[in-house]
Design a protein that fits this description.
Layout (H helix, E strand, L loop, with lengths): L5 E5 L6 H7 L5 E6 L1 H16 L4 E6 L5 H13 L4 E6 L1 H14 L3 E5 L11 E2 L10 E2 L5 E5 H6 L2 H12 L1 H15 L5 H16 L9 H21 L8 H12 L6 H15 L4 H11 L5 H4 L3 H10 L17 H10 L5
Parallel strand pairs: 1-8, 2-3, 2-4, 4-5, 5-8
Antiparallel strand pairs: 6-7
Helix pairs in contact: 3-4, 6-9, 6-11, 7-8, 8-9, 10-11, 10-14, 11-12, 14-15
Bound molecules: nicotinamide-adenine-dinucleotide, SN-glycerol-1-phosphate and zinc ion (ZN).
Zinc ion binds next to helix 11.
Family: Belongs to the glycerol-1-phosphate dehydrogenase family.
Subcellular location: Cytoplasm
InterPro entries: G1P_dehydrogenase_arc, G1PDH, Glycerol_DH
Amino acid sequence: MQLPRDVLVGSDMLGKVSDVCSDLQLGRNALIVTGQKTRDIAGIKVAEELEETGINVQIHVSGSASMEEVENVMEIAREMDTDFLLGVGSGKSIDVAKLAATRHNVPFLSIPTAASHDGIVSSRASITHNGETTSIQASAPMAVIADTEVIAKAPFRLLAAGCGDIISNCTAVLDWQLAHRLQNVAFSEYAAALASMTANILIESADSIKPDLESSVRIVVKALVSSGVAMSIAGSSRPASGSEHMFSHALNRIAPNPALHGEQCGIGTILMMYLHGGDWKEIRDALRIIGAPTTAHELGIEDKYILQALVESHKIRPERYTILGTGITPDAAEVVARTTGVIS
Ligand SMILES: NC(=O)c1ccc[n+]([C@@H]2O[C@H](COP(=O)([O-])OP(=O)(O)OC[C@H]3O[C@@H](n4cnc5c(N)ncnc54)[C@H](O)[C@@H]3O)[C@@H](O)[C@H]2O)c1
Ligand SMILES: O=P(O)(O)OC[C@@H](O)CO
Ligand SMILES: [Zn+2]
């Protein structure tokens, strides 16, 4: 099991980055991977923090979370003899830094500027490779530094998406248990219990998740940490990724303008909880209270793509057995999507 050594959550945590780096004795050459917008939000501040302590810093602005981008960052790391990498920004920047650091065999720090998914802590990296966007094994961050002030200022849509990614653990664990019973798939009670408990705590706290509130950010970030730890305990994304994620990955392939990962996973959880015969209304109501999308319209995706993604989801990870089994028929998909109100 690989877990982060330090996890800092609170106000002005960006000011602690250099303390964490010297405490962990990470070395003198640092490479920051960040986004266009997040460079100005936090990337430059982190660079200045590190330079004040004599560390040589280079900033790389990455666009896509592709394998080419990872190889590009690895080339820069080789050229500047990087001792450690920092992912400063959203999911794509953190995943590129995470996989590049893993393959360059140096430590990596995760510094999220939004609490939009559980990749901020996990030992998984979702890198697009040959059209696939399912996660691959990487190293867990040596440290996670979540500045709740910065994250609270991010568009609330991102925090709501993070809630969707956490609530998706509900159906991910049900799928994992089903696969264990039917196919004797390796199963960790502890990872499953942690992932389920995390989702249930968030569902119960739904009405405390409000815009611009650091207390809301703390609730979501701690839940994302728990989800990431559950994946590290399991050694896979199983505790946090089941049929609802396959639905989201299918939408990424099919929809002209996919929504945020956590938004798609939240709606996938409503649909798959219905298929499990569970309390899908509880899922829908929690997402609605939080302000996350619960319909195709709110997702900004046409009904036809929702239905097509439902019918194709089981093909996304054929080796990962879920409630979708060998696939749902188009007419059954219509029943699920209409009954749950995801399509009108
Ligand atoms: N590794 C994992 O375990 C894991 C888990 C879930 C998702 N993912 C991956 O993460 C990616 C999704 O990440 P995401 O949902 O953050 O989307 P994203 O990376 O596309 O970022 C969304 C947007 O948020 C903006 N943003 C970030 N912080 C901001 C801030 N403070 N203020 C204003 N704007 C800000 C970014 O500039 C970006 O335009 C996908 O590639 C997904 O596959 C990985
Ligand atoms: O393995 P996947 O399906 O990419 O899932 C990883 C992460 O999104 C779980 O929240
Ligand atoms: Zn996810």
